């Protein structure tokens, strides 16, 4: 059985926006989702997340609600207003 460190990174097919203010959690999840084939965009704040969302149009967003500045609920409301 291969461990995660032995697996080659998959070719990205979908873009995922990960919004998490804890650097350790953000790094861990970014690595894991990258190995699962996602192109991962990571943001630590709500305003950074909204900037990335506008520029990159990700396919999926994983959002922490307890963020500094604009909280996750504010980010979600703004994303819903801007997307289909």
Task: Characterize the structure shown.
The protein is an alpha/beta fold and 84 residues long. It has helices spanning 23-35, 46-56, 72-82, and strands at 14-19, 38-43, 60-63. The chain has a three-stranded parallel sheet with strand order 2-1-3, sandwiched between helices. Helix 1 links the parallel strand 1 and strand 2 (38-43). Helix 2 runs parallel beside helix 3.
Which word captures the global form?
A: globular
Query: What is the count of β-strands?
Result: 3
Largest sheet: 3 strands, parallel
Structural class: alpha/beta
Beta content comes to 15-25%
Order of helices and strands: EHEHEH
Helix content: 40-55%
The low-confidence runs, each spanning 5 or more residues with pLDDT under 50, are: none
Mean pLDDT: 89
Whole-Å distance between the termini?
41 Å
Count of alpha and pi helical runs = 3
Strand line-up of the largest beta sheet: 2-1-3
Q: Measured on Cα atoms, how large is the radius of gyration?
A: 14 Å
Question: Secondary-structure map with pairings?
Answer:
Layout: E1 14-19, H1 23-35, E2 38-43, H2 46-56, E3 60-63, H3 72-82
Parallel strand pairs: 1-2, 1-3
Helix pairs in contact: 2-3
Offer a few descriptive terms.
alpha/beta; 3 helices; 3 strands
Gist of the model:
With 84 residues, this protein is α/β, with parallel strands linked by helices.
